[in-house]
Amino acid sequence: MDTGTADEQLMLRYQQGEHRAFELLYTRHKGALYRYFLRHCGSAAAAEELFQDVWVNLIRSRERYQVRAKFTTYLYRMAHNRLVDHYRRHSRNPGVSFDDHSNPTIENFAAPDREQPEQRLVHNRTIDKLKQLIAALPPAQREAFLLREEGGLSLDEIAEVTDVGREAAKSRLRYAVARLRKGLVETG
């Protein structure tokens, strides 16, 4: 099977019984989806549970799948709904942890380390500050930002996933980026 096949086509093939199509979808989206959950809920255990639930729900719903939007929109809509259920059940505001190194059961999500130690130190300090700034964003802005950066979703897809209008999604993303830029400039 061609690894360049569109996600929507892979999902339709999986619907018809091609299990290799599911494997390709999982491989393509596992890292970003896991990080989306981890950065929302702050707990590696909760993130892994939510991550697994979404994939199980995708498997269960494959018979009903219809191409109405990009596959990533469909996947992150399921993720968003599962996250909402999680927060309702635990009735707390979402916390955020960006310590991707804390979960040894999910491997190979980080890019390879090819930088010199001095560059890596500066890079790590900037990343740590960015993580703090993202954690401090209001939840709606944080979600829009993570859907864009981790999920690669467009404004229309973010609006669809979060059940808001396109302009609201655009505003949330714009305010999030402005706050992050301002915070990074202030720490210079």
- Looking at CATH, the homologous superfamily is Winged helix-like DNA-binding domain superfamily/Winged helix DNA-binding domain
Secondary-structure class: mainly alpha
- Ends: how far apart? 48 Å
SSE string, helix = H, strand = E?
HHHHHHHH
Proper CATH architecture: Orthogonal Bundle
Residue share in helix:
55-70%
Largest sheet: none
Gross morphology is globular
Structural domain tally: 1
Please write the CATH class name: Mainly Alpha
Give the total of beta strands. 0
Whole-number radius of gyration?
17 Å
Instruction: Give the CATH topology.
Output: Arc Repressor Mutant, subunit A
* Strand coverage percent: under 5%
Q: Name the average pLDDT.
A: 82
Tally of individual helices: 8
Low-confidence stretches: 93-115
What does this entry show, briefly?
This protein has 188 residues and is mostly helical. The protein has helices at residues 7-15, 19-41, 44-60, 71-90, 117-136, 139-149, 155-162, 166-187. The protein has one domain: Arc Repressor Mutant, subunit A (Orthogonal Bundle), CATH 1.10.10.
